[in-house]
Amino acid sequence: MIIDSHCHLNYEPMSLSLDNYIERANKADIKYMLTISTEDKHYSNIIKIIDKYKCVYGTYGIHPHEAKLHKEIKKDVILDKIKKNNKIIGIGETGLDFYYKHSDKNDQIFSFKEHIKASQDSGLPLIVHTRSAEDETFDILKNSLKEKDFKILIHCFTGTKNFAIKLLDLGAYISASGIVTFKKSKELADTIKYIPNDRLLVETDSPYLAPEPMRGK
């Protein structure tokens, strides 16, 4: 049995033929899927999907790219959203992306911290996106854990081995995507081998990051 810990079933092309995609996944022994929230406006679609498909669960959160458009999404709003359905089992994806910088750093940090507070209060795991922001991400997580414990999942890990070790020391879980199969990802593949099986998850991040030989499809 495989659990896809991170996918976006409300995105095209899956959303256009979701019955077919769910059936294909189940036949491939993918028995459960977690469809991830990135924007508030799409949350109602996520609720519809998890209500329709028994094998699909969901999250609520704002992607760091969208932080500038969701400054009103604070801890209390997040806590209210996750109460809408008992199949909402995670908070995120949230985090920091200083590679594309679609949102100002300060807006991303503020949003990230509000999601952390919601995770601390609710007990639901925090699903973290981090790119070109290893030090900042680690410092925020470490300092927040000193205040109150919460569960951490780093999605689509592409960082250094040193970063992985530091995250594991925090008690975090780490998820590998199709990127680990790319020809230029040998260092990443070696890092993933280092992660204990009981702290490692897999994901498709579909419709993105298909593994070799399906890359780009």
What does this molecule look like?
This protein has 217 residues and is an alpha/beta fold. Helices cover 36% and strands 20% of the residues. The protein is built from seven helices and eight strands. It has an eight-stranded parallel β-sheet with strand order 1-2-3-4-5-6-7-8. α4 links the parallel β4 and β5 (126-131). The protein is globular and about 45 Å long. The two termini are 24 Å apart. The relative contact order is 0.13.
Any low-confidence stretches, pLDDT <50, length ≥5?
none
Provide the spatial order of strands within the biggest beta sheet: 1-2-3-4-5-6-7-8
Taking the alpha carbons of the first and last residues, their distance comes to 24 Å
Main sheet?
Answer: 8 strands, parallel
Helix/sheet category: alpha/beta
List the helices and strands and how they pair.
Blueprint lengths: L1 E6 L10 H10 L2 E6 L7 H10 L3 E5 L14 H8 L5 E10 L7 H18 L3 E6 L2 H14 L4 E3 L6 H9 L3 E4 L9 H9 L5 E3 L15
Parallel strand pairs: 1-2, 2-3, 3-4, 4-5, 5-6, 6-7, 7-8
Can I get a quick summary?
The protein has 217 residues and is α/β, with parallel strands linked by helices. It contains seven helices and eight strands.
Features:
single chain, 217 residues, alpha/beta, 8-stranded parallel sheet, 7 helices, globular
